[in-house]
Every structure is written in C-alpha cells, then in structure tokens.
Protein 1
Amino acid sequence: MMIKPSISAQLARFVVELGADALPREVIERAKEILLDFVGVALIGSTTAWSRGVQDLALDEGARPESTIFGSGRVSRRLAALVNGTSAHSLELDDTHEPSLSHPGCVVNPVVFALAEAKGCTGQELLLAMILGYEVQCRIGRVLGRHLLAEGLHPTANLGVFGAVAAAGKLMGLSIEQLTDAIGLAASMMGGTMEFTRDFERNLVKRLYGGLPADRGILAAQLAGNGISAPRTNIEGSCGVAQVLARVTDLGNISMHLGESYELMSVSIKRYACCKQFHSMIEAISACQMEHPFAIEAVRSIEVGATHAMIDGHMEYRPRSIMSAQYSLPFVAAVAMASDPTVPTSFEASAWGDEKLLQISEKVRETWDPRLEELYPERFGAWVQIQLVDGQMLKAEVFESSSSAQNPLGREKVQAKFRAITSNILSREKQNFVIQAVMSLEQSSTITSLMETLGHAEQNNIDGRGV
C-alpha cells in the first residue's frame, strides 16, 4: 500500500521542483510590487529606535559581512534577516495575507534579500524563492492561522518560519529530503504570543515577530542542509504543531492543488499604519465624513460594528505606547476622524496626550456583528454609526478596504506609497533607481547595486520618542 507523503514532503517537492518558467506573468508582476512595498516599509522601519537596537546588536556580533542591513552595513545572512524583518514589521505598514491573518512580507523578503546577496543569486531566483515562501506560509496559514490566534498565538510569529524556510531552502538548493527536514525543524521553531495586546507599555517584542521567524527559517534550512533531521509529520502528526498549537486535524487543504493558483495574489498592501483589522473601519469613517462633513465637536457617539478579532485586546482608550495606539480600535477611530492614519507619526507619543484625539476615542463603543464574523477572515469588514449632537445619524459599511487583495493598490499607488515613506531617507534619484531595479528584477544577474543603495540609505527622519 502506498503511503501518502507528509505535508512537509509535499510542500518540499513543490518548492524544489518549481521553476521560474512555470510562474504566470501576473504573479511575477505582483511580486515585484509587493517587494517594492517591502523595501519602502523596511527602510522607514529601520529608522525607529527599536530597530536600531536590533541593528546595534547585530553589528556588535562582528559576523561575516555577507548580507546588507538596510541603512547600516553588512552582517551574516541570519542577522540581516533578523534586523530587516524587525524593521519591516516596525510600523504596522507591512503587507497582509488576510486568510491566514499573517504578514508574509516582513518574514519572507528579508530572507530572500539576505540569501540572494550572500550567494550571488539572480533577480529571477530571488523572485521565485519569494513567491514560494509566500505560498508555503500562506497555505499553512489558511488552515491554521485563525485557530492559532484563538489560542493566543500570533499568526506571523508562528507561521512565518514556514515561509522563511521554504524561501531559504529554494535559494540554498536543498534537496526534497533536506527541505522536508527543514520544514519539520521549522515547525519546532514556531513561537510568539498575543500577550503584547494585554500590556499597553511593554510590547516591543511584537516588532520582532517579523525578524525572529526570518532568522529561524534560515537556521532550519542550514541545519537540514548539514544533516539534522526532524519528523516528517511535525505539522500534522498527533504531537505535531497543528494539533498541539492550533487543535486542528483536517489539514488536507494545505497541499491541495499546488501550482494551480498562487497565494501571493491574495496579499494586500497596507495604506494605514495600524492593525489591518481596522482598515475598513477607517474608510467607513471617511465615507461618513465625505457624505456629510461635520466638525469633530459635533460628534456625540461613534459605534463600530466589528468582529471578535477587532475587539478582543483592542479596546484600550488611552494608549501608553506606539504599539498600543496602533492596536487600539478607539484610538485608531479617533486618528481616522481627526488626523491621518496613513502617516506613522500619527501614532507617536505626542498623539497619546492629544486631548482632541482622546476625547474622540472615549466616544467610541464596539458592537460585535455576526454578519461580519461570518465573512472573516476572508474579508475584514466593519461599519460605523456616528451620532451628531443635533440628532443626525451617519452610517457607512465597508467590506473591502481600498487596499484589500480583492481591491488591490495599482502599481502607481504602490510606487507613490514607496516615494512618500522614503522621502526623508532616499534622494529622488535613489528612489528612481530602487523602483527601476525592483521592477526589472527578473532581468538582473545580480542584486549587488540594489543592496549597496539600500545599505547606504539615511536614518535620520524618526527619533526615539515616536515612530
């Protein structure tokens, strides 16, 4: 009787055997847009105080200078992935795969940049590894992500290691057997809780939830390449991570129809520097303001229709850190109404004491909506109902925010976001170079010039007080 290969083995075979010529053109083009967004987000994230703390640690290691830290020099491939992954997840601006509730870009892309540079890979090889990393992380996440979150585990921190190890294994040229072991090793490296949502001050660990799995993914691939084995059923086995961490036993969809479509096409690029759960709420507030302009002082109450994921751990009315501000439903609603949620500095320390924002925040109340829950996590919907002091009631509902995968930002808007968030980091000439380099990546024999530019970016636009 033929024994069905394990999930790790099925995924490993797909990753090892897929060639760039099998990729649809639309997937390659979208991958480049997502990669450009990652570069911009990681660059601005690299200027934060917490990212600099991780950078300093990496540079102090004195490791072999083979891979570039954005804006800071060169270190080992694993340390570069750790630092750049942390930077990319530093401002809540990184891409999102809604069905898995995870952020693949802040994990997979630091890995492919670090390894492609260290190994002298082509741009085409980088893109292929990136797409495969997204595929593996997001496929596993479609099945496990929501259940991990229900158990108090952060989806990116736990799922990211699978995307990282798949991308690393591809660029390192692992065999099917080696990558099967690497995926099994990665399963034993999952980790990261949601407790940061309960502590409104000491929560910078969440910024590491991009860098840590990126680092571990490379480590798992290196160990497997050196003959270290792991259970082939470390995902689906009776003591595997699916049952132990997520309490899920039906995992057939993870490896079904591989290569028929690509999860990267279900990834969205963020417009707003806050938890993705709130983006539809932001746009519903904007719709009310456009329909019937009103003064902030005229608002009596704001009711928000939401899912459990929007509400649980998100109802802090007086943020005490940047992280809690970006994760606070009431505060984000206030920023949407009276400030600019596209700008990371709208959530910095000076905003927490802004009485105008705090007064608006205190008028916000949440209402759980079973209709929205039924659509979740495929769709992150929300509605708002704003009552004015004169008795008028304004209401708007948004099921798909303007940057969802179903309603994606076009290339011009992706490039505009890149220019906006790197305007104080890169000169116009360097911005043009980076855009051109990324958008023609599949034609590049090396990424050396691109990495040299990213390594010499300025780091002077954001201070330690805020974002």
Protein 2
Amino acid sequence: MHTGTMARAGQIINLAGTEPIDDPEYRYKMPAVFGKIEGRGNGIKTVIPNISDVALSLHREPGEVNKFFGCELGAQTTYSAETDRAVVNGAHTDVVLQGLIKRYIDVFVLCPSCNLPETEYKIKNGCIYHKCAACGAKEMVDMSHKLCTYILAQDKKNKKDGKKDKGKKDKDKDKPDKDEKKSKKKSSRDKDKDKEGSDEEKKKKKKDKKKEKKDKKDKKAKKSSSMQDSGTLDGADEDDSEGGEDGSNEDVSHGDVDDAGAMDLAVDGTRRYLKENPKATPDEIAEVVVNQQMASALKSQDKVHIFARAVITPDFFKEKQVKKHAPTLQKLIQGNSIMERHLIAAMEGLCVDKPTNFPVLLKQLYDEDVLEEDVILEWACEGRNEYTLETVDEETRAALRGEAEPVVVWLQDEDSSDESDDE
C-alpha cells in the first residue's frame, strides 16, 4: 500500500515543466500528483486519487492527463468521469508520476514562446496548436506524440456530442410550441362546434379557395407548353395561395410546382444563349438569366436555379464549371444570404442521383467566394425547410448533409481558429 497519502494530498507546488521554478511567489500552482497502489501480481495497478485536481490546475481534461501516463509508461489506462477514478496498470511510484507530469506540462501545457501555462488547444485540419492567452502566440504541439491521437479523437467526439445535445435542445424547445399549437387548434375546434353554421361556412370558404387556386393553375397551364416534374421550391404553392387572398401576390404568384415547364424553358433558353455567345460577359449572362426568369413568370429566387441547372453538369469538376461561372453567380446573388440558401438548394437538387458530388460543389462555391461560411453552417444546422426542393426528400437531404460533414467540420474549425486569432 502507498504510504503518506494524506501528506501528499495537501501538498501544493509550483506548476513547472522539467525546468524547476523555485520562486515561492510564483502564481501558477498545482497539487503534487500521487498514486495509490492496489492489487497484486498481474492485477496490480496504480490509482491516482487527485487526477481531477491536477488536471484542473493545468486546464486540461483528467482523462487526457491519465492517458499521457499510459502513453509514456506503455501501460493500459482507464478513467471514469462518473466516479472520477483514474487507473494506470502496474505499480508506479509518486516520483515517477511527478516526473511524467513535468514532461506532460512541457509538451502539452506550457507556451513554447513565453513558457507560461496560459494555453488552450486549437485544432485545425487535424493539427493541434497551443493558443497562448498570455503572449498571443499560436504554436503547433509535437504531433509525433501518441497522445495527439487521443486529443483529436476526443475533440471529434465532443463535437459530435455537442451537435446531438443541440439537436435535442432544439427539439425540446419546439415541443411546447407544438403542444401550444395543438391546444389552440383544439380550443378553436371547440368554439366552432358551439357556433351554429360555422362548419358550413368553413366548407364554403375552403371550396371557394380551391376554386380560386384551380383557376390560377388553368391560367398557368395555358402559358406553358409542357408540364414535366422539376426541382422547384417546396412550400411555394402555399405562399402563392396566401398571397392571392389579400391580392398582394396575385399577379406574380407563378413560382410553384406547376411551373416546371416554365423552368425548363428558361433553362433551355439560357443554355442556348451561352452556346451561341461563348464570349458573353458575366453582366450580359446575368441579364439574360433575369430576363428568362421574368419572361417565364417565375420568382426572383428562381434565377439561381435556372442558371445552376443550365451550367452545372456531372462533368463540373473536370471542366471547372464552378470557377468559370462564379462571376455570373455572384452577379445573380449580389451578396444576399437568402439567394445563397437557394443556390445551396439548387446544388442539392443537382446531386440527388450522386450525393458525393455535393460536398465538392459546396467547397468550390465557397473557394470562389460565391457562398459565405456562415450561410453554409446555417444550412448544416437545419433540416429540410422552405428552401429545399420538392425533388429532395428527407432521406436524400440527410444523405447530402452526411456527405458534406467534412466540409462543415473544416469550416467550423476555421471559424473557431479565426475567432481565437481575433481575440
């Protein structure tokens, strides 16, 4: 059994690496690490009772500190966050453990520039950096150490758990709203039952609304020579019908799923113009696309769908189509985040049959300054919504989001790194 446990448990020393610091006024302190040997024979092990106190003083995780012991000693380690119990297989003296802690502090805690323990990890592109709050330096740690694999794995796990927690919170947040809506609907139904003749009035209104909607569709059918299934905005039909009630959208409500033929005609017209005018400028092309959109009585946001469908083909990577047409896309979007969301939706629609193309398109559009980082991250945090095309069902959208995960993680890491640099 280990002796002198109580004495060592209260011992506070200067926080230092392999170079000792004898200054009694040194403000960075830590508890001396100590172990307690348990078991015998092949089952002998060293328990570290104050692992959390040591890790807290170093601003690191207890599991990481314990894992360092295992890496250096070539021993198996276990750490339970629930019981705060750290175990290193084998019998190891306090002198050995304290020596290892000093080496850990040298490599993973102290700033390489100012030698102060004011660092935190910043991880970008699979590399771990020290970001020092004292001097502002940003230096890479020794990536050849085995502990780096553990740190990267833990970072990935924490990000994954964070997304799950966020999704759960959003779900819980929406639940009361849903219950409230149900309650309101129920209350409304009860009131309607008490009012004589209200059911008949509701049926009449519904019938009139259907008739009005049918009349609009008939008018649109005359304008389009063919009605094929195509990618248009999900929920647009609902918006048009609402606009028709107050008269505000009556003359421009042509962007719903019944305008597939009009969209096809606009796409064909744009392709024809590009073929006949290979030297057209981005301004000229953008003007033609807008004219096609207006002539086809489509909504303003449909211009990005028209152009994307006209120029992006399965050979986009080989022919560098994104780079070639980026200036025109910028003209059509004009820095509008809503238009950027519609462009992402257009890319989803183009990648339904081959989801692996989607992250490549996303990254290229970001590299060419067509899509902003925050717009892509906003898309990544949401599910299927009003921007998503009707041709992209829930399962397909989830598959596309899965394929885009490496790009999203990369952007999140870059965003975190930029924020820390600004600080």
Protein 3
Amino acid sequence: MSSNKRWQLSRRAVLRGLGTAMALPLLDSMTAGKATAAAAKAPIRSVFIYTPNGYIMPSWTPTKTGANFDLPPTLQALESLKSDVLVLSGLALDGGRAHGDGAGDHARSAAPFLTGAHPRKTAGADIKNGISVDQVAAREIGKNTKFASLELGIERGQNAGNCDSGYSCAYSSNVSWRGEATPVAKETNPRLVFERLFVDSAQNRAARERAKLAQYKSSILDIVHKDANALKNKLGQTDKRKLDEYLDGVRSIEKRIQDTEKNNKKVFRPSMKKPAGVPKSRQDHIRLMSDLIVLAFQADVTRICTFMYGNAGSNRSYRSIGVPDGHHQLSHHRSNKEKIAKIAKIDKFNIEQYAYLLKKLKSVKEGDSNMLDNSMVLLGSGLSDGNRHSHHDLPIVIGGKGGGSLKSGRHIRYPRETPLCNLYVSMLDRMGAFVEKFGDSKARLPQLS
C-alpha cells in the first residue's frame, strides 16, 4: 500500500475468536477514500417502545404547543432532552376499537399498535393481524445489517391460549408482526440478546468449538483479544478511542449480565410453577436492554428495534417505586385519586427509563452529531385512558432528529382522530422504506420537519 493512500477497513469487518464474531462500531477508517461525505453519513435507526395500560393523560399532555411547550409531571424526566423530543397529541388507533367484537381492549392496544390493523378475535390458531411498521422497514433496509430487526421485551409471553376476553395471547405478547398470522417473538433475557449480537451462531460451527465456547469462563473480549490488538495497531488515534469506548461498553454490559446471573443463583427456586411477581429490579432490566440496543446500533448489526416495557394488560406491580398494586388493576381506577396517583408513578417510571435510553444514544458521537440525532425513538401506548379503554388522543413521543429530517423540541397537536399510521408512513419515508399507504393511514403526517 502506497504511503499516500489511507488504509481502509471493511464496514463488514469483525473481531474473531473461538466461535465468536464481534461486529465493530462505525470507524473513520471504514469510510476512508469515499468520494462524498454522504457515503460516510450515519444510518437512521428506529426504536418502537410499547407501554401497557395507557397513561394518566392530564399529567402527560402539555398545555402549550410549539417550541415553548411545557413538560407536565409525567414528562419531567425529559427536561434535559426537551430540544430532542417531539410530543404528538391527537393521534388515534382505530384498529384497537371493538368494531363489534366486544371486550378485549388491552389485546387490541398491543396487536395493532404497530400494524394499524383490527385483529381477528380468536383464542385459537387462526390469528390475523397485519404486518407491523418495523417489519415493513426491515424488509427494505434490514438487508444492510446482520439482523433485519431486533425484538425485545421485559415480560415473557406466549403465542397460544386466551389472554384477554377471547383474544389470543399472541396479540397481548407481541407488537412486531412479520405477516398477518406471524408475530415475531421478543427476547426478554439479556444474556441471550448479548449472545445473539456477539456470538457467531452459524449452523456449520463445529460441535467442538461450541463446547469450548460454552465452557469459556472469561470475557468475550478475551476471546477476541488478539484480533482486537492487531486491529488497533492499524488504526489512527480517533478510531482507537472509538474502539476502546465500544469495547468498554461491551465489557460493562457483560459484567452486569454475569453479576445478575450470579445473584440469581443465590435465590431458592421451589419445584412449583413460578408465581407471578416482581423481578429484583425492573429498572435494571429495562436499562440493560436499553444498553444492548445502543450497542447493537453502534455495531450496526441492526437499525430497527421494538421494545415492550410490558405485555398488554400487564398486572405487574412496581414495588421499587412504592406501588405494590397490579398495574392493570390500577388502570381501572374509576377516578379514585389514590389509584390515579399510583398510576402516575408508573407513568413517570416509564418515561425515566425512556430518558435513560435517549441519553445513552446522545452520548455516542457520530461525526459532528450523535446517535440520537440519527435516530427516531418512539414511545407510546395503544390506549390513552386505561380506565375508559380509549384509543384516541394517544400518548406518543419521539426522541431524536431522524438524521435531520425531524424538527424536534416541539409539542404538536393534530386534529382528533388523526390516524397513528399517518405517523408511521412518515417514519418509513425517513427510514428509506417508502410506501403509499400503511394500515389505516390517510396521508403523511404534516409538521414533522
């Protein structure tokens, strides 16, 4: 290689070790020699976060619109991120309504949340919903990454049985749908997510290597140590720093997973069906998954993720924040002030975890901007008022600037009954997955840029 040419690293380069292929973050040396700055532009990532049981909307909805909007109590955790978010009011999910099917609004808040479809009421195998917005995007841009999409959650679910008034558990447990009858199961175990991201799972890996890898007690970074050091010798100072920061993040997450597993081994497990209860720390679980999302985006192994903070109709309690009652039961508050106050605590908890993810994304520098600027992170629910099972005026917030295509730092109020799917069509445009129509969309959502 002549001295006047910059050494260039393949964007698909990985660190290899025993049965392991660890993706690398975007480095300057991967874009060396590119003809234009556009070629080195960071990709747009999208996260769709579902939260169950609706919100206390008076504590969610800003009273002012535009850039000078106020942050009500529920959204206070976004104070330092106010210029990075769009709060959207007036959007509706018509597919969540009964349309003659009777009860089951909780299942109908999750199943259509990302599809806009009206799910067939059945507890049998003849489920029917619709393809979700994340999977529409995955079909188009997922070919650019190792994984077309990543589906995460906090509560395990099932795809059979009756979970809500005659609706299949598949509707309550999933927001990502590859097709009308094909939900994409989420992963709730951080260890398995970590291994999926960084352990080479090729079918042709030798059984001997599998056994050795399973027995390896040191960090995954020790496995790729030799390859990492060899690469560092070829990198400039900026890329070395980026690589070190990335590897430090991997090590930190790995240690937290190991510590969690070590603590779990100390817990007595009787030989009976696991009772419904609260994990040691729901916050730690959500934040660990959030860190894995950031890591996956850094490594560019995926650009699309769905994340369920809870299954539809979740009745988990939140003892760590002083709410021992079940969330679903509380949502039927019947205007009881004490119950409303407890739900408001849960609502604030959700937004605090959301703010954590946004801050982590913002901390990752990408050229002159950061990863949050190059992302669209939607959080919302398929219900607004959980007591009345309302599917209009939904709680929707988007973090990030979508690569400069979103004008953040505003509260926008749309006319009542504006389809939520209008937003999804607009997001698909920005992801490079253009469609004429999606779900019950009627037009692109205006005022976003």
Protein 4
Amino acid sequence: MEPVKYPSRCVERFLEYVTHDTQSREDSESYPSTPGQLVFLERLRAELVKLGLADVILDANGYLFATLPSTVDDDVPVIGFLAHVDTSPEMPGKDVRPIVHRNYQGEDIVLPDDPTVVLRERDTPWLAEQRGNDIITASGTTLLGADNKAGVAEIVAAAEYLLAHPEIPHGPIRIGFTPDEEIGQGTKYFDVKAFGASCAYTMDGETLGEIQSETFSADTCVLRFVGFNTHPGFAKGTMVNAIRAAARFIADLPTDSASPESTEEREAFVHPYVVDAAVDCTTVRVLVRSFDSAGLERLHTLLRKTAHRSLERSPGARVEIEVEESYRNMGEILKDHPQVVEHAREAIRRAGLELREKPIRGGTDGSRLSFMGLPTPNIFAGEHNFHSRTEWVSTHDMQKAVDVIIELCQVWAEAD
C-alpha cells in the first residue's frame, strides 16, 4: 500500500462536511437550487479565510473562489482545482451519519440503520483493493456525500498543507467550489474569466490513480405525446390516450443494446428516466449518451423512428420532440492541450500510484468548462457507488488524492 507523502486533515474535514444537507433539486426555480448549499458554502468561505487563502469570494450564485499565492518567482501558469458541494437528489441526503469501518478485511459491511443495506466485495470489486484500509459509509438510510465532498475536503486539506509548507514550490493556485452539479447546472453562472486559471482539475473521480480526459457527449430528448381526454364512460371513438402511446414508445426501445443495462465502456445508450403521465399529454424525458456527435445523431434518429412507430398503433395521437443539449465530450478540447493531462499523469506517478485512465460514462463540470475555455480533466477523489445508500470512500484514497494535488502543483511549477 502506497504510504501517504503529505499527511493532512482531509478525513476529519470530510466527516464534518457530509453532515451538512446540500442536496440539489431539479424542480427548483432558484439558484442554487436549495438553500442548504449556500449555508455550507458560507461555512466553507469562513474556513478558507481562516486558513489564510487570498481573494476569498462567495458570489450570489453560490460560486466560492479563492487563491493560494505562488511560492516561486518564476512566471508559472495559474491552475485551478474544483469540486461541487451538492449531493444527488436521487437519494436522501439529510441527517447523514458517517461511519468509519476500521481495518477492512473483506467482510460484508452491514449498515446499522437499515441492515438490509450491505456493502459486499462481490458487488463492488474495488473493495478488494482496500483490505487493511479504513472505509467510510453512511448508516444505511442516506447517501454518504463523498460525491463530491470528498473532493472538497481533499482540496481544502491540500491548500492547508501548502500554506503550512511554503518551501514547496508552486505557482498561483485557484480553488473553486460550485453548486448544482448533480442536476446539470454546475457551470450555469461560472465566470471563467473571474476564475482566472489557464486550466483546472475537477476532483470528482472514482478509483485510486485514475484520470479522466473524456466524457460522454450528452443530450436530453423530451417527447410529448399528445392525445385527447374525455369522460371514460363515453370515450368510444373519441378518447386518444397519450399514456398508451408513450408506453408503447418506451416498450419499443431496445433493452439488449443501447440501454444502460446492456452497455459498458464506450457503448452508447438511450435511457427513459422521467415520465409525467396524463391521458391528454404524457411527457417522457430520455437521456441520450454517446462519446461522439455522430453517435448522438444516430440515437436521436432511433428515438424519432420509435416514437412515430408507436403512433401507428395510437390513432389520433401525435408527438412533439425537443432536444436539449447537456454537454459534450471534453476530450474534443483536451486533445489540443496535451500538457494539462500529461502533468496530471506525472503527478499520479510521483504519488506512487498506478496510472489508470478511462473515459467517464457520464459527465462532470469539466465537460462544459472545457468548452467554455477552461480545459478541465477529472482526477480521482476516491468516491464509489455514487448516488446510493452503499456509497463509500477509503480514507487512504482520500489522503492519496491530497498527495496528487500537491504533486501536481509542483509539476506545473517545474514545467518549462
């Protein structure tokens, strides 16, 4: 097991951070979407000021920025580290009770507040690498919040260490904490110019030693099946049930291919995930995911053809289709900035870790930020089983993420 190079208080911070309810809400009209995020961000702002960081600003939209001043005289590019403070709306995030399971040895971890929730190696292969380490979970009724408070804690801990060790050479470092990433709004008001970095790294990945420089390209397809409602007792020949048309559409989507349940690695999919049903109008929201734009277009065609085929068995119904762009594969931008990824690889190697690289079957704030002019790959934070009551993180992996941040700051300072 790789020893920790730069001991920090990231675990202690994390255990306190996750007790704050920062769950985001997709149906909210405010920004950030929930007041708990601003409460936690204000608490973070006070902590950054107390640590001695410069330029600490929390704006009205919930973006918290700060600066770690340079310790070298050379002109070093400004780099940034980012994490999001919100947790997923898919699972309860209030009253999180973190539990540290000491010296894990491969046993099943039964979560006490709901003993039916069990963390097992056979279900989570990455656990096998954690034998001898401490594992943190929630208590069984909520998610943990490692996604992404592990990243928040790691960034703050690295900043604290660097402030206490000015002999470590690094250029100016920008730190940013953002809201509403989990509902796809994390960069909505992000001011790249005000952030002032040449590149950044989100600390929001999974496995120890991992760096990710590609994401899905993503759209959301909204299909509105329109029918006609009338009293069901007198509906013969007049009622057109939009629910039936939408149900036929969903039933006709592929299940043995192009679905989340049947794909892996670089395979694309469509995923109906929200249905708002009524006889006169039923709306189906479908996630569309592919690693390239041509793949997205093929999936859009699949959805259109499937929808119109369902109408053939639903006389009188019609469908309205709208495509909402979500984000694009950040690899399209990062390929033009190879040093951003290569420096991260070098930092991982210097931390004594095996380098792991794979595309993200999802997205991060870095996807949009890269297209907004801030190249932003993703580095591991140690998070596992996202959006789940079995979410967990290893204290060792968190400490090694701190090591990588500190090494990466030095790599940039040494680069020509």
